[in-house]
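Continuing the batch. This is chain 6 of the set; chains 1 through 5 are on the previous pages. Same settings as before, nothing changed between runs. Recording input and output for traceability.
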Amino acid sequence: MAMSFFDQFASPSYLGIPLIAIAIALPWVLFPAPSSRWISNRLITLQGWLINRFVNQLMLPLNVAGHKWALLLASLMVFLITINMLGLLPYTFTPTTQLSLNMGFAVPLWLATVIIGMRNQPTVALGHLLPEGTPIPLIPVLIIIETISLFIRPLALGVRLTANLTAGHLLIQLIATAVFVLLPMMPTVAILTATVLFLLTLLEVAVAMIQAYVFVLLLSLYLQENV
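Output for chain 6:
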């Protein structure tokens, strides 16, 4: 039983062919296509307004050079939210519970921010490794610590997203299993447990959106240090 709880995180396959590519590509089909008409429907108008507000908030602390990342970060935000939300539906697979996928997003984007900083302003980029006013005896130790913290950033991005979604899915499955077990024996307790399950599902919807926002927000903060 303990192992079956983790079967939901195994990448599905059909005839030996992994289906994670379909799970990643399918959300793009659900996005409404922009219209050439001046007046769009309510869904496209709401989507455009939300993306516009998000981009404005995200690009506010960045200078003009960082605004080139607006399309990439907004697309990543919408993509992660869609995948996380679809993963809460029954009989679906959440690709963002795979650490390899999240690291595949985190490492290249983090590395791009570091390369931009080293190319455009190497003195400022390297200056982040040594805080101003550091005593001379502590300089080697702080440089090592700051370098390690720099290379831990992409790992923290990927692990944070994976751990939060994995923990939420496990909690939902555990409480749902408890509801089915308790229903024939103690219906009152089962109803109370089902209420907790409903509230936890609402919490997981919020977590799915918040974690996607945090992932993109941290990337923008890393970009802010290097532009």
